[in-house]
Specification:
Length: 711
Amino acid sequence: MKRNYKFLVLVLLMAAASCSFTTKTFNDPNKDKLLIDLITYVLEKGHYDAKTIDDGFSKEVYKDYLDAIDPLKRFFYEKDVKEFVVYQDKIDDQIRGKDLAFFNLTHDRLLERMKEVRGIYKEILAQPFDFSEEEDINTNYEEIDYISSRAELKERWRKQLKFSTLGNFYNSKEDQEKALEKDSSYKVKSDVELEKEAREAVLTSMDEYFDFSEELERKDYFSVYINAIVEEFDPHTFYFAPQDKDRFDIAMSGKLEGIGARLQKKSDNITIMEVISGGPAWLSDKLSEGDIILKVKQEDEELPVSIVGMRLDDAVNLIKGPKDSKVTLTVKKKMMGNIEDITITRDIVELEETYAKSALVNKNGREFGLINLPKFYFDMENYADRNAASDVEKEIIRLKKAGMEGLVLDLRNNGGGSLKTVVDIAGLFIEKGPVVQVKSKGEGQEILEDQDPSILWDGPLVILVNELSASASEILAAAMQDYKRAIIIGSKQTYGKGTVQNVIDLNQTVRSNEYGDLGALKLTTQKFYRVNGGSTQLEGVKSDVVVPDRYSFIDIGEKDYENPLPWDQIKPAKYKIWDGYIDFEDAIKNSNERMTNNAQLNLIAENAKWVKDQRDEETYPLNYAAYQNHRLLTEKDAKRFDAISDYTSNLTYESLPYEIEISMTDTILREKRDRWHESLTGDVYVEEAINVLEDIKVNNIKRDKVANIKN
């Protein structure tokens, strides 16, 4: 791998985090007040484009916070909001004065209203619904008013609960009719019985929701309030409470220390939702999906701790732990119902779905490579450990050994990650040169370069993107597009996130802290730019070959969020366009012509418009006959899109030899890969990427001169 390029680590901010931020004394005895004071100070000093905290800022925080805690307007009364609105232009003053009066008022009132609603929904669901009544429900919650009385609150909940029950009731009747068609002796239930079952299912769902809500602590709601403040600076500045920071680290590295099981809480029980392939629990072969964990005992403890009724986060904290430590779980087995004590040695668990994976694609006897990269992952504490760049490098070497003639790099749905891995990955495909430009607050701009002239893959390259390809994905796609090194196939534009965030450990910003873990702040500190000087902020990367997908008509990009930073541009860097192809523009032209006449893509475009229309629908009938008619028409209309999932290409996919060997014993991995390969056979975008690879002609004279010492 190349390590000699200059990579910008945020030295200024890191120094500030340990030095200049601490020139202010944070000695308020209340942790919440300390957090408010600390976070706003860090924001004002460290944010790339810090906002003025004034009355206008206050009004936006007020609106967004209420939307966050009562988005469907099903808890607060109009009279509550009249009390709240007094603070709408005073939150800025409260921030400076470390005054929590507004938060305290809204938090206490929300808990009061939730307790009130718990009695209301149980009362409503105790009685049958009359689906013969002519009425409907409006789901445009932004436009409806807050309720003015308890009777109105009950009516709003009645309609929502009836709507949920009606959906269950309709599905049960449909399932019953299908069962009767298959088996004439099937015992049919009456509408009265089906309605009762549908209502009971909604009751269970509501109970689980309110049980979860009651587990939330003041600090959880306070995190929501803090984020209503920090997200006014931009959509990607975010406060992580301690538990959330742990989850973020896991998401970025794809690793955790523990037993290797995903847990969920149902009623009072902590249940195993999934045993992670390759982890300690999987290797022990003693835990299964559906098993209930009753107690947890650490190796240095005499007695176990019961986790029945415990908060999920608290239970997880007991079960996870450092590598090589042991934990004993008292488990009620799903299959037999017996109770066992199971001791597991914790280890580092790798989340396979986080990491790059590859496949060989065969078309007409020719082999091509496909690498799917879900995110630009890295270990925040040790970059030299497993990361996206080193894994992509390994997969390319393996694909070359298998004889690939062209490579598809799939960055669809890749939300980004480490900037450093982008530079490393770009260097696998180009001779030395700039990859991305970075501009810091008050510090001018810096060019991050690949300084190694060697190239690992100098053959045809296609990159797949969509509207959810963001940040680091956009940097790589933009660089390869500017160099004309790769052809970009995908949505009209990518997500449009042209900013860089750094995570500031708030515990490092105070000299003495007696309040426990303060969490962390993900802070926008830089903007990045293409080597041609343009920003990807808001505009994203525009594909060379535009193809429709399910998101084509849905607002999901950076430009659709509140408070995004603006688009701008800077001076281009000096770079040399790749001259390894001889028909680059022709390959793009041919692909665009194929896409225009592709019946499958035309159908996908129609489906995207249809999905948008469905999302825009706001009013639904609560009368069964009208609801049934609406559902039947919708289902009939949707049937014309069945061909999308029925589509099959003439390509075949297989794992590389090393992975085939692993999957001989790892049946979970084998099943995941089989499902992936099956989905790829119906993937028209990968099919077109392979077509483009076939079209691209390589300049063999240039290729012979390229230093290709990586193998």
